[in-house]
Specification:
The complex is a heterodimer of chains A (about 260) and B (about 150). Chain A is an all-alpha fold and about 260 residues long. Chain A has helices spanning about 1-30, 35-50, 55-75, 85-125, 125-130, 135-175, 180-190, 195-220, 225-255. Chain B has about 150 residues and is an alpha/beta fold. Helix content of chain B is about 25%, strand content about 35%. Chain B contains 2 helices and 8 strands. The N and C termini of chain B lie far apart (about 90 Å). Classes of the chains: A mainly alpha (about 260), B alpha/beta (about 150).
Chain lengths: ~260, ~150
């Protein structure tokens, strides 16, 4: 019993310590950013994190939009309310699926890569040699990745939403023969700029901060062995997916809880 | 050279993302860029607005001419006071214009329909619409029907 309590307490303290290290890393990395030389590093990271994630985002967005439109259409057709497909599609995407699915894909595609890369740098002692040479690894390695994630993910979310709406349009209008006028006007009547588009984007900024923070920290804090890197990468994907879903629930509750 | 293609692709990515945001704002949420055409307000009192929402549309003969700006309640007379925002400038609607609350389709949203009258005078900004007909509430209709059937 005492043994159990001791190990439980020890583990809690470990968690607390890693949260503290993550916070310290976050602030030192952010404080260390802007400088003209760092912009080039940032562009390179946006390429790795954002541009290379485009394909998976576009493909998933198209099929998700198409599936939602198909389901809405078949169910709403029973009430003769096919015109509401555009409305339902846009609200579901803007408020929930756009930010959440982009967050999950981003964690799997970019987060894991960031963790593995930084983890390998640490294992092969590149980070410590940088420190030896007087280069701050937080500034040179961590900060550009954090910023690249925070900049890329909202843009990816916007692209996701547009492609998914296009996918829905293809299925509902071109394929199932819905009315394009009803599709767009139903959407425009229901969607409000701040309440739906703005808050969805705000969600995605929050997810971007959480996912990249977890990814970078797991890499930076990894145990310097081959096994440690694998463990850290898994932990990144699991932890950021769970965090995205949990935070999404809290954000939805506070943003849309008292409405409708 | 490789750096340059990388920079170009990042630039294209940023541009695509910003264009996507603009698309969401303009095409999906439908903000109107020609909002400076002006509008004026009319007030109508209804016995029952059941389910009418702010921002619901105001139309004549099915064509949208404005939207519901504000719904308040007058607790003394037990009426709903609805402020309508009509596009354009005053002068187009006769003073004896009526207003009724209708439903779009079977399950659709409530909207306000205006019925222009024949008076030469026209409604000015802030005028009251006298001739109003509130929303039909299913429970009241069924209640009426039962009373009438019972009486007959």
């Amino acid at each position: 019993m005492i043994q159990f309590l001791r190990s439980f307490g020890g583990r809690s303290l470990d968690r607390m310590a890693s949260l503290g290290r993550a916070t310290i890393m976050w602030f030192t990395a952010l404080a260390g950013l802007p400088g003209p030389g760092d912009l080039r590093l940032l562009v390179r990271q946006i390429y790795h994190v954002g541009v290379l994630s485009l394909i998976i985002i576009v493909l998933s967005a198209f099929s998700i939009g198409a599936v939602i439109a198909l389901q809405f259409h078949t169910q709403l057709a029973r009430f003769g309310a096919e015109d509401s497909v555009g409305l339902g599609l846009a609200l579901v995407l803007l408020r929930e699926l756009g930010p959440v699915v982009t967050g999950l894909l981003f964690a799997g595609r970019a987060g894991s890569a960031i963790t593995a890369e930084i983890g390998l740098m640490k294992t092969t002692e590149q980070l410590s040699s940088m420190e030896m040479m007087g280069v701050d690894p937080l500034r040179r390695i961590v900060a550009p990745r954090l910023w690249a994630g925070v900049i890329s993910m909202p843009l990816l979310t916007a692209i996701f939403n547009v492609v998914a709406i296009y996918g829905g349009l293809v299925v509902a209008v071109e394929w199932l023969g819905g009315d394009p006028g009803g599709f767009w006007s139903g959407m425009q009547d229901a969607v409000e700029l701040w309440h739906d588009v703005g808050k969805g984007m705000l969600k995605s900024v929050v997810f971007a901060v959480v996912v990249t923070w977890i990814a970078v920290f797991q890499g930076y804090d990894t145990e310097p062995t081959a096994e440690g890197i694998g463990l850290a990468t898994t932990r990144t994907v699991v932890a950021s997916s769970v965090m995205v879903l949990a935070i999404d629930f809290l954000l939805t509750l506070s943003m849309y809880g008292e409405f409708n | 050279m490789h750096i340059r293609t990388l920079e170009i692709s990042v630039g294209a990515f940023m541009l695509a993302g910003i264009l996507a945001l603009v698309f969401l704002a303009v095409k999906v949420s439908g903000i109107s860029l020609d909002a400076d055409r002006g509008s004026y307000q009319l007030v109508a009192r209804f016995d029952d607005v059941a389910g009418l929402r702010e921002r619901a549309k105001v139309s004549i003969a099915g064509v949208q001419i404005g939207r519901v700006a504000l719904i308040e309640v007058d607790t003394i007379y037990g009426q709903a006071v609805v402020t309508l925002e009509i596009d354009g400038s005053p002068g187009g609607l006769s003073a004896d214009t009526g207003a009724q609350i209708l439903t779009e389709g079977i399950l659709g949203a409530r909207y306000v329909n205006l019925l222009p009258g024949a008076d030469d005078e026209t409604l000015a900004d802030g005028d009251l619409i006298y001739d109003t007909q509130g929303a039909l509430v299913l429970e009241n209709l069924v209640g009426d029907l039962i009373t009438r059937l019972g009486a007959g």
